Amino acid sequence: MPLLLPRRSASEGTLPDRAWDWDAQADIGEGEAPDTNINTTTYRAWRLAADLLHDLRSGLVKAWADQADGLITFATLFSAIVTAFIIESYKNLKPDTQLLTFELLRNILTQADEAASVVYDQSDFTPAPTDIILNSLLFASLLCSILAAAIGILYKEWLREYAYNTPVDPRERARVLRHRCQGMETWQMQAVISGISLLLQLGVAFFIVGIVFFALPLHPVVSFVVNVLIGIWVALWLGAAICPMFHNQCPFRSPLARILHAMIFSLWQLLRVLLRRPTHPTSHARTLDVQEGREVRLAQDALDRDALFVVFNAHWGDPILVRLYPCIEELPRNEASVLIRQLCTPARCVPASDYGDVLSGHGAARDQGVMGLVNLWKRIEQAGSHGNSTRPVSISNSRASDVAVAELTGKGVAQRPHHSRGTTYVEGGHTV
After folding, report:
1. 431 φ, ψ to 5°?
2. DSSP classification of residue 349
3. In whole angstroms, what is the distance from residue 245 CA to residue 292 CA?
4. Tens digits of residue pLDDT in 263-278
5. With left for phi above 0 and alpha for psi between -120 and 50, is residue 111 left, alpha or beta?
6. How far is residue 194's CA from residue 134's CA, in Å, rounded to a whole number?
7. What is the pLDDT at residue 414?
């Protein structure tokens, strides 16, 4: 069901008092008509709530399912590769029957008179230590891959049950969906998919170490090339897992990175306890998410501005951007000034007309978006609702446009007021 958006007034373009204003008598859908004793508006409200609740979780469930599909596909292909190596390597764990036959025939030909006494005892055969290690690693890798694929299949079945066989009544459906969602949170479904990924990475690690032993008996050049390439891959793998611990914006997060961060945090806390040093609660973050939360709070104003800038640029010209003006009004005044200055580019104004002229009423805009932002800035300037250190103490209404120009362009107001007491103006970005 599509999301019901608030209706606008046709005359003024403003939102009505009743935000969720829909026709209560509209058709509910065939087979969904509620009992005559149930309020129709309430029924539709619960149906909307159930749909929104389903959509809220369905995106994450679909992402988990897609990730499980990818892991299962990789596990299947990886198992086939490991199996091919096992077929070649496991032969070294038992006597070679062809070699045994060759030795017997050679003894028979060279010592025909003593052929009856030629006996080859298979119990004397002992595999080489490298062969034992190689096969152990390859079989461990194959088992990790198969287990990951099996758990992935079960995981997909668990995800399918989230939206399967839900009640028709919207209120009951909302209850059931929330009940199942709480179960997914309690039983850590996110941790399960992370465990599948870690199991596959462990299998790949076993396989790579096995390749090193597999290449040892070969030509030294082949062994050297294999070892160099494997060393580069291991450095990249571990580096990608360690980078998020030192730079929280690093996008290389993974279950392995979270585990390494938790281990280092635990060791750090244990070391401080052994050294009897006080533990500061904010010295080190327990998890990557906590560390990210701290950095986001420190740069929250700049992030708000950048987020709005990206949204406005991507959807420039869409009338729905008017609904985002309250977000700009809530920004600190300096951040709002930077944002509007970034959005009101000269390309969006009439040629030979700077947006500062548009702001002061001496120019024109190429579209309504610039004029809307200009009017918004004037409203912010006159309302004076976001004070900070760079904000004038008081501004006369007659000079509001000029001050706004100075704020946005970074230039001082050309004319100073003569004998104007109590009027503050901006020059060069500073309050005078």
Report:
1. -80, 130
2. B
3. 10
4. 888 888 888 788 877 6
5. beta
6. 28
7. 33
